[in-house]
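tokens incoming
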């Protein structure tokens, strides 16, 4: 971890446009033997000069209960996040970390998942929805999501029965998948028009394994699929995730991280497509930290986003940086 921080320190920038309000709708808190990223670490990253006012914590298989029914054990993550961030809520907290919480529940439980969802809601008044990652690819060079999903998960009858419980309770569904699976998200969104589907990481365009060296071709496939998905008015998109190693830019292999100009130039085709297809009111920038730390620092990443949005109107910029996320995740209360 210290080596990674030393590497990130080779490319340092001051935060540009520091008064822009940011709601970061996607980050994680975790504690692994060799990788600790909890409130202290996030505050250090968010303290680089950008005005981060609220965040949304997204599940990452942390602090599950070790006793009791297996189906209810993921509620431990919501309990953990609620506890460790409770002091960081309210008008004086800067930022309000985990103002919204997206947890995990096994949607393949079908109708029985309602008990799990109700337990999450009881564990935290900030619980807003579920991510049941479905990222899967036929190539053994592409890592599956941490949930070890089977192929075609979003179309399975038992999974959709579970999604129906989400919809009934007014909760959101975060979809983490690869670009080849975007048509599955279309099917899910059409089947549940009252459900808000949040597409994580710009739909996961791949650039490694069998997709390496085919960026223009993959972009065409990705954009075509995203255009169909945009026809589902209940879908919103998180613009980010492109600094993950699976995107294939290879920044993590360099002697120094990229700066925000290079990041913005590389992300621009994806940003432009999302903005054209979905509109700013259905798009939100996300940090996906600390995962994106493989390629860049928090300050540099948000500088890149600000460069991308420079030609947008004030209303569009507000949506991209804050208001879309605040609306989708129902983050009430005064801005710190």
């Amino acid at each position: 971890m210290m080596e990674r921080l030393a590497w990130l320190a080779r490319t340092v920038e001051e935060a540009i446009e520091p008064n822009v309000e940011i709601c970061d709708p996607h980050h994680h808190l975790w504690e692994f033997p060799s990788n600790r990223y909890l409130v202290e670490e996030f505050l250090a990253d968010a303290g680089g000069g950008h005005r981060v006012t609220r965040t949304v914590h997204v599940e990452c298989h942390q602090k599950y209960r070790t006793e009791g029914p297996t189906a209810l054990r993921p509620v431990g993550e919501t309990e953990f996040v609620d506890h460790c961030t409770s002091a960081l809520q309210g008008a004086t907290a800067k930022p309000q970390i985990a103002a919204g919480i997206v947890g995990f529940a096994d949607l393949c439980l079908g109708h029985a998942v309602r008990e799990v969802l109700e337990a999450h809601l009881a564990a935290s008044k900030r619980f807003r929805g579920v991510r049941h990652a479905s990222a899967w690819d036929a190539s053994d060079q592409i890592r599956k999501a941490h949930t070890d999903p089977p192929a075609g998960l979003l179309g399975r009858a038992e999974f959709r029965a579970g999604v129906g419980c989400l919809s009934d309770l007014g909760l959101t569904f975060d979809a983490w998948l690869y670009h080849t699976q975007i048509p599955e998200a279309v099917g899910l969104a059409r089947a549940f028009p009252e459900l808000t589907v949040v597409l994580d990481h710009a739909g996961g365009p791949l650039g490694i394994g069998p997709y390496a060296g085919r960026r223009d071709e993959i972009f065409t496939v990705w954009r075509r699929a995203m255009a169909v998905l945009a026809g589902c008015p209940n879908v919103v998109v998180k613009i980010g995730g492109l600094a993950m190693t699976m995107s294939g830019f290879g920044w993590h292999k360099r002697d120094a991280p990229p700066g925000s100009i290079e990041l913005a130039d590389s992300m621009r085709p994806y940003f432009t497509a999302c903005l054209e297809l979905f509109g700013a009111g259905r798009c939100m920038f996300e940090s996906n930290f600390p995962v994106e730390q493989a390629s860049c620092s928090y300050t540099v990443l948000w500088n890149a986003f600000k460069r991308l949005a420079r030609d947008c109107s004030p209303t569009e910029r507000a949506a991209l940086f804050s208001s879309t996320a605040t609306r989708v995740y129902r983050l009430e209360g005064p801005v710190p």
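note: The first helix runs from residue 2 to 8.
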